[in-house]
Amino acid sequence: MNLPTPPSLPPAARAAAALALGLGLAASAAFAQAPVGAGQTMRIQINSDIRSTDPGGNRDDNTDNVLTHVVEGLVALREDTSVGPMLASKVDTSADGLTYTFTLRDGVKFQNGAVLTADDVVWSWQRYLKPTSGWRCLPEFDGKGMTKVLAVEAPTPKTVVFKIERPSALFLTMMARPDCGGAAIVHRSSLGADGQWKEPVGTGPYKIKEWKRGQYIELTRFDGYSARPEARDGLTGGKKAEIENLRFVVIPDSAAAKAALYSGGIDAFISPSPADVVEMRGRSDVRVDTTPVMTMVALLLQTTDPLLKDVRIRRALALALDTPEIAKSVTEGLSAVNNSVVPSSSPFYSAVQAGGYKRDITGAKKLLAEAGYRGQPIKLVANKRYEALYSAAVLVQAMASEAGINVELEVLDWATQLDRYTKGQYQSMAFIYSARIDPSLNYEMVSGDKAAQPRKVWDNAAAQTRLTESMVSRDKARRQVLFDELHKQMLQDVPMVVLFNASDATAMRKSVTGFKGWAPAKPRFWNVRLDARG
Amino acid sequence: MLAYLLRRIAMTVPTLLLVSIAVFTLMRLIPGDPVQLMLGEGADPAQLELARQQMGLDQPLVTQYFVWLRHALTGDLGVSTTNGLAVLPLIWERFHVSAVIVLTAVALASLIAVPAGLIAAWRKDRPTDLAIIGAATLMLSVPSFWLGLLLLMFFGQYLHWLPVVGYVPMSEDFSQGLLYVILPIVTLVLVETGVLTRMSRASTIEVLRLEYVTHARAKGVPESQVLRRHVLPNAFNPTLTMIGLILGHLLSGIAVLETVFTLPGLGRLMIDSIFARDYPVLQGCLLFTACIYVVINLIVDMCYPLFDPRVSVQ
């Protein structure tokens, strides 16, 4: 029997084959034209889209990172995290610390061509200080927090005077905070006719060219930029937009971002994982910049918990941990241990701050016995969005078990963990704090009245008094003493075990030159060059 | 036919209403505060409260639901708490991206899988059958994200034939746009072809056993005609049902693939809105997804009589 003839392809299948062939041909044709505009647009990975273009408003780290290229404030952070003038040429402070006079630089223009005047500064600040502005740092300036701005005046077109209610050591620091949008001065045309935010018309070296939501935001060089004469210095100093366009591309998946970097699809990959950094260092076409940053990873212990309210158990847990090993393992050796809330890259990081916990299993067991601990479980909350937290939690669990402490991991998504943190609903928690640029702000994050704000980790009246003084005092030596005392007290109270300050990595194609990371973990792409494609 | 259509459309109203209640309630049951996520770990309590008021999140849940429903009935699904964009245009924009990929991939997969299943069934237990079913099982077993990453690395990273990241709408630049969707489409085609081939083969085997097929062969009808005229139309309906289910499932978001290929599609929008607790966007997405399922089921139901006259729409 002969086999019957198989059925011929129906017309639809033939059309599909033709389409598939067409796809292939189109791919080849388009690939042949791919490297267009090489050397003019730098493509930088960000792991999620920016939230808005309103500085210090609806924001996150990516938003801040992009907008620092577009807008500037009167002052800005220097490389050493001190504060220096940016749009101001100088800042004078009255003897009582209640009046700040900013003299504006000559020749500064907004991206619409208008010349910066003191009136623009007043307008920007009046907008920030409106109760409904949504500005992240409003509480620091409206009297709820650090101080209250009583008046912002423009006695001359080049002079702006701020009058504040009570002196503060942190007034300029708060202005310069990147998460406050650097208190950016924007032109009033940044708002639409309806008074709603439209787009920043700032004074930075780049301006927004195109924002494709969920895909990328592209900045283009502002040709009328007036650079400061000094060298690059943190977020101030001389800035030069060497590359015509910066395109921040949204790539949430790190494996895809890595493939894109290796293939030349992007030029820079911000914050690859430590494991990826190790891999990338072995490649000839990629360079990795690593910098210790002020981001803090810590193990929080709930001091109101029935079990952990006993300081002996908290101390035993601290003694059970080999924190240098945790820091080394979690970061693949990129970060070293730091048991202090003061970041190791801070100018206030003294020999006292370098003191910390030493692993002592015998001592831990002794404390546990004294406290009558009988293996009750201690829930440790972590998440996998921040891989370092999960890895640290696993190590904490293993190390604690050696001392007989029964730690149980509870892995949540970040939003849920943040909610628990805010409500203080946890026994212990591996947590990450974003960078703060002054030790007072670091301590303020964790210290306070738990009844009023359950998110506060350390509720100690004496510590609070020292912290308040550190926020007012402008005497650096006195502040150092206060921070050292706070550190020693925290080691005693053990409301948390600070593990390490993260190291921030930025991986780049070899064609990228001039990039330099720095402690506040804010990547800067001015004064960066893109040579022939690597 | 028209009466049936209208009745089915009318039935979608209570379905969507129930979906909206379920979605709204479930979203609020998930721990996590969109305002806290927006303002960060150091946010001031007064600021948090003010933001909640501005977003209407301080209202009782029932009030929030009815406010949302009232707006939804007029086509206004609110604005994203993440970026302030209107939800409906946002969903529609993202849906376009997913739809181009899914519709092309499912069409190609169907055009490959239906004949492949037919041939496999026709050559049952022979090497051709084993080869087809083996390939289908392999495709079915490979996780789509892994396959996607492999293709990405091979064609993007090593061969440099295709872009690794990004997206250009084909409406803006057809040839460039095509480059960005080839790999996601190929990945989906490979995975879905496996599912559909198995379904097509199974239903064809059933039909090949029926008496009218034997009768047609006995009459001397050429085998190709037997398969095309007598077997394929009768075996196609179960596969059509499966195609409908796959379409509904995929059109509601290919989140993993969209993440791997950095495509701004509906799936990634949903994932991002879950992590950001962006209630309006997630509610809108899920309602939209429910609508897609309803519409696709309706279309599939309408298509049955076209392939099998024994089925009538009443």
Structure description:
- The complex is a heterodimer of chains A (534) and B (314).
- Chain A has 534 residues and is α+β, with helices and mostly antiparallel strands.
- In chain A, helix 8 (311-320) runs antiparallel to helix 10 (361-371), helix 9 (323-330) runs antiparallel to helix 11 and helix 14 packs antiparallel against helix 15.
- Chain A has 15 helices and 20 strands.
- Chain B has 314 residues and is mainly alpha-helical.
- Chain B contains 13 helices and no strands.
- Chain B has helices at 2-29, 34-39, 45-55, 61-73, 87-122, 127-141, 144-158, 174-208, 211-218, 223-251, 255-260, 266-275, 279-307.
- The longest helix of chain B has 36 residues, at 87-122.
- Chain B is globular and about 85 Å long.
- The interface between A and B is large, with 75 and 70 residues.
What is this structure, in a nutshell?
The complex is a heterodimer of chains A (534) and B (314). By secondary structure, chain A is of the alpha+beta class.
Topology, number of strands of chain B: 0
| C-alpha end-to-end distance of chain B | 6 Å
Characterize the main sheet of chain B: none
Mean pLDDT of chain B: 87
Number of helices of chain A: 15
Strand content of chain B: under 5%
Major β-sheet strand ordering of chain A: 8-9-12-1-13-18-14-17-15-16
- State the low-pLDDT regions of chain A, or none: 1-38
Largest interface summary: A-B, 75 and 70 residues
Q: Indicate the structural class of chain A.
A: alpha+beta
Average pLDDT for all residues of chain A: 90
What fraction of residues of chain A sit in β-strands? 15-25%
Would you list the SSEs of chain B in sequence order as H and E?
A: HHHHHHHHHHHHH
**Into which percent range does the helicity of residues of chain B fall?**
over 70%
